[in-house]
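Pair request: fold both.
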Amino acid sequence: MRRCWQILIIRVAPAVLAVPAFAQPMPTPTPSPTPPPIASSALTVRIVPPSPDGAPDPTQSVPVNPVDAVPAEATAGEKKAAKNELVIAPIPLSNPTIGSGLGVAAVYTLAKKEIEKETPPTTLGAGGFYTDSGSWAGAVAAKASLKEDRFRLTLAGALGRINYDLFALGPREAGIPITQDVKGALGEFMVGLGKHWFAGLRAAYGKTKVGLQASENDTIPVPTEQLDVTLVALGLKGERDSRDNVFYPTTGSRLQFLVNYNDTAFGSDYTYEKTDISYSKYIKISEPWVLAFKGSGCYASSGAPFFDLCLFGASNVLRGYTVGRYLDRWTVAVQAETRWRFANRWVTTAFLGVGDVQPALPSSADNEALPSGGLGVQWIAAPQNMITVRVDYAWGQDGSHGLYVSIGQAF
């Protein structure tokens, strides 16, 4: 069920909703040598774009991790007050799936009381967008670590209307313009099992209704029972996360495994299983250079509706592809990205990837490897938590391309 709202709202336009920045599971940061700060309710607000007087000083060294930027006098005993941070970003977008438009996103992080505690910051977020295709969506989310990170809680909700092309006859055939109303919510609760390990449960609800954008179009080539669907799922999730920073990792790794069970016994219209697994690795080459790698796989059992199959183009898996052009029973993909912090508040990126779709539908029987690549630039909007606003331009096969704007890293 998670795909019902998360793929078609958050994943259809991940660059706009900014949910990736605050709804992802938060890793355990590496303890800092900095002494405990003085608790403070002060709020630091960062609004995009930066003002001219906020330009970086090119003569200064560029630490790749915020921990490295702690002044020497602070490590010698001076206490540093923690601050809440708010990032508000108006986001222009041009997405290969839903067209061009404007979005806005906000991420609010609460300062930790003791900076050396291995506890990610509590994060709240909201975002929305509207495009020239008539698509719109909005989402809210919250992530909290409780009892010194013994428990992790995530809550999220979204709704909207997405107008896009359905490639039910194959990725190289003309798409059929459809409109899809979606709404959904999820809750996730995880328990720490030891150093870096977490496991827990996820419950999700989604409702979607599909129709043609124009009356002169032909009928939609999917079973009629998939045009008005309610999905209810219970999921099992496991994670090992050793990244050194929630929003801008430079070392460590992250392994995620999620199995979602949709069942009529829960109130769902369909019974099927969907599994997602991913592994990311981060290597700091030198002070300003970081290499990031990610491998991911998806499997959907028989009985899944067309909009909850595995696909490329969503959730930053093979950027550059229209969501829904390549989808089927299972997918695999690998990606690599280099991140160079060339100035105090600026980062540039380059990325490459390749993926494969295993056919389960007769119309997509041309199984082949799909390449992806692109370039990006990021502005560090919230230096204390290293929250960035990024712009990526990516391209794929057969002239497919797209511009993505979002808060946070792609992975």
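--- second member of the pair ---
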Amino acid sequence: MVKMGKITIRDVVNALKKCVDPELGINIVDIGLIYWIDISENNDITVKMTMTSPMCPVTTVILADVQLRLEELEGVGKVSIDLVWDPMWSPDMMNKDTRASFGV
């Protein structure tokens, strides 16, 4: 595989914005599920993220979508997703426009 250039945080965020929570119909970035993104010199991507609840019934669907979207980035190396529960997600983690749409 020919490396086409350095993948940026913006590239990763734009890819993740295509991942929509099927229950809420809103992308996972705006919901506040993404906690941390790291991109190595080799374009390996590590994402730390959470779900709105440990009992979220669509966790596997969202994680598979994240993996797929990131693997589609041109020049990507290895993709790792760490599902974390600390800190626990709360509505305060949504962006302000998303919070407003929920009346929070």
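Observation on the second member. Residues 9-101 form a domain with the GMP Synthetase; Chain A, domain 3 fold (CATH 3.30.300.130).
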